[in-house]
Amino acid sequence: MSYTCLPEIEENLIENTTLPALQSHHTFALDTHCDRMTIIHDAQQLKDVDFSQPFCVLGEGSNTIFTDSYRGVVLVIANKGMRIEELNNDWLLHCEAGENWHELVQHTLSLNMPGLENLALIPGNVGAAPVQNIGAYGVELAQFVDYVEGYNIATGKTQKLSASQCEFGYRDSVFKHRLKGQFIITRVGLRVSKSWQPNLSYGPLQQLHEPTPQQVFEAVVAVRQSKLPDPKELANCGSFFKNPILSVNTVKRLQTLHPNIPCYDVDQRHKKVAAGWLIEQAGLKGHAIGDIAVHDKQALVLVNRGKGTPTQLLAMIEHVQRCVLTKFGVALEHEVRLMGANGEYHVGAAHEGA
């Protein structure tokens, strides 16, 4: 069984452009370019790529911002399709990396294969999901991953990794570390249980009483739409900063001064603190630098009001980090990948928290 979600990208138009524009290929929509662009419709195309030259792998650009014109080739992953394998207790979904994530969630519900509904409306494609280990409303992608398949640049061959080999963590995976720049995800295997149980641990979902999967899906979509702007209407990359993971003792000190600080258990020694709350309490909700602003409904989101520049964005990132560090002693790290002329780089905090 297969289906197609995304419209075909006009590859010929891109190839005929001397300097391909990146503005429409990342949802923050800064006016930047790259030297070359290749659309990957079939994983076999990767065998023909010269990986000795600078390259950047891109899905739908919902978690990547190009802050300068990239001096290399951008590989846009756009392979499509899904095959469904029925097992005794589960459904195993073999999903091509270029499929749109939200439309995949919708499709599984339409086929009466619930389980992914808490991850509805997360932007991006399937191939990007394991890199970030996307998560929302009490659920993480890692709970469903059976395998991740991709192109190993060093060997020039396809390689399949088990879920444990992906080394998933909070918004983290092996693809951000040991395999960064070495492994291009082309397919993801998702295992969905036939015995569905709703996860209603997140605040607004607790109000649901014996919901159907569709009702959980609709509730998640409603909450996300109420807080997060549609990138098609207001350019953004969703949650911009990671929720810092702090020691229990650090959180206790913060709670002494700020009793209402939202925090969640990670393990016996660590808690996760809501970055959006920290930013809002630092007085930054709605704050703007040029056309780059902290969203007025959700402080965790930075938006481009139309004519934002890379300089304004970098100034905003540093300003948010500085204000939160000054007020709370907590160092925020940006969740969004920043790509400069020569590759990825980080601004400010190099760790999760103080």
Instruction: Supply the CATH architecture of the largest domain.
Output: 2-Layer Sandwich
* CATH fold category name of the largest domain: Uridine Diphospho-n-acetylenolpyruvylglucosamine Reductase, domain 3
Task: List the domain count as a whole number.
Answer: 2
Major sheet attributes: 5 strands, antiparallel
Parts with pLDDT < 50 across at least 5 consecutive residues = 1-17, 350-354
Assess the beta-strand content as a share of residues. Answer: 25-35%
Strand line-up in the sheet with most strands: 5-6-11-9-10
CATH class of the largest domain: Alpha Beta
Pick out its properties:
alpha+beta; Uridine Diphospho-n-acetylenolpyruvylglucosamine Reductase, domain 3; 5-stranded antiparallel beta sheet; 7 helices; 354 residues; Uridine Diphospho-n-acetylenolpyruvylglucosamine Reductase, domain 1
Would you give an account of this structure?
The structure is a single chain. This protein is 20% helix and 27% strand. The longest helix is centred in the C-terminal third of the chain and has 19 residues, at 310-328. The protein is an alpha+beta fold and 354 residues long. The protein folds into two domains: 1-227, 2-Layer Sandwich (Uridine Diphospho-n-acetylenolpyruvylglucosamine Reductase, domain 3); 231-345, Uridine Diphospho-n-acetylenolpyruvylglucosamine Reductase, domain 1 (Alpha-Beta Complex), CATH 3.90.78.10. Mean pLDDT is 91; it is low at 1-17 and 350-354. The protein has a five-stranded antiparallel beta sheet with strand order 5-6-11-9-10, with no helix packed on it. A hairpin with a 4-residue loop joins strand 14 and strand 15 (270-273).
